[in-house]
Amino acid sequence: MVWQSILPAFLASMVEFVEALTIVIAIGVTINWKSSLLGAGTAMLALLAMVAIFGTTLVLFIPIDILRIVVGIILVFFGMQWLKKSLLRYSSLKALHDEAAIYEDKIRELQNRGDIDPGKFSGFGFMASFKSVLLEGLEVAFIVITFGAAAGTDKVDGIFQASIGALLAFLVVVTLGLTIRSPLTRIPENTLKFMVGIMLVTFGTFWAGEGMGIQWLFSDLFLLVLVAFYLILSAVIVWWLKPYGIAQK
Amino acid sequence: MNIILRILKEVFNFFCGDWRVFWGVTITTVLVELIERLAILAYAKSFAGIIFIAGISLSLVVALKREIAD
Predict the structure, then answer these.
(1) Separation in Å, CA of A237 to nearest CA in chain B
(2) Across the interface, which of A80, A93, A226 has its CB nearest the CB of B21?
(3) Cα(A164)–Cα(A148) distance, rounded to whole angstroms?
(4) Quick one: which H or E segment has residue A109?
(5) Do B48 and A76 touch (CB under 8 A)?
(6) Domain containing A162: what range?
(7) Distance CA A239, CA A90 (A)
(8) Residue A1 pLDDT greater than 60, yes or no
(9) Global pTM?
(10) Which of A73, A84, A212 is opposite residue B64, by nearest beta carbon?
């Protein structure tokens, strides 16, 4: 199914690209756009190369059954991180990600460096932009490779579709960023993070279980049962944690 | 040695980041593998899916419980 590879890659990429865009804009505004965009562009190329190299390795050398167990377990680990963070945020035990505050902090940090010449290419600006896009994009690259390779029977096609999902998110975020020229504070990052967490844990559970020989009821439709189960579990967890969040405040 | 440990820690943090989740999911996976492979545990096969989902959910709950205890 196409949506199995495109949707998770699209949603995960939205979250990560919004975070990276905040830093890229801060560097563009304070240092200069040339260094900032060159750093971001180089990081994107590095990420594409990573997807191509690791994607090809998975496609060529690992059979789909083994891949599904390994990818499934890793997706569960990975998804738990996203889910845990977003549940703690929903319960007020962790502060919501505030792009505007991060942007202001970054601008202040860059201005405090003092040696800024807006007309010149800045190695520092390039590296700061490169690092932020690369670090935020690593998770996206990982999701593109794993979801793409394990989602269907054709691994190459899967990775290609997942890459399209990530690319679409990149275009949406960049277009919005260029239009408003400030951090994208209105994108509900925690909700997106929560949705991605649910998807990662759901698919991870399903694929790992299938790889180990578990016969899921209703076959692929059991994915919906898993989504419903993890949503209900999350609601119960937030209900359980909420009083601790209020007490902490 | 320090660099290797640091790299391993970074890799762990990137993929999992929580030892309680790591051990919870790992033990559950081993248990389900044993149920699926050992004839002596074959009677539990019909519950393997439920055990797997319960193990994963429990790992999440234990990890969050520790967060509020800290």
Answers:
(1) 8
(2) A80
(3) 10
(4) helix A99-113
(5) no
(6) 2-248
(7) 10
(8) no
(9) 0.81
(10) A84
Q: How many CB atoms lie within 10 A of CB A216?
A: 16
Query: Over the stretch A182-226, which tens digit does the pLDDT of each residue have?
Result: 666 667 778 888 998 999 999 999 999 998 999 999 888 899 999
Strands of chain A (E only): list them. none
Nearest chain A residue to B49, by CA: A214
* A161 touches A2 (CB < 8 A): yes
Angle at B26 between CA A92 and CA A224, to 5 degrees: 65
Alpha-carbon distance of A166 to A91, in angstroms, equals 29
Residue A114 backbone class (left: φ over 0; alpha: ψ -120 to 50; beta: rest):
left
- Find how far residue A78's CA is from the centre of its chain: 10
Q: Which residue of B has its CA nearest to A73?
A: B25
Structure tokens at A107: 């601008």
Q: Domain total for chain A?
A: 1
For A163, other C-beta atoms within 10 Å of its C-beta total: 23
Integer-rounded Cα Rg, in Å, for chain A is 20
Q: Residue B34 belongs to what H/E stretch?
A: helix B19-37
Instruction: List C-alpha distances in Å: B5 to A100, A138, B16, B20.
Output: 35, 21, 16, 19
Which tokens go with A191?
A: 């909700």
Tokens of B44: 């539990």
Quote the minimal CA–CA distance from B2 to chain A in Å: 22
| Token pair of A68 as six digits | 């599904």
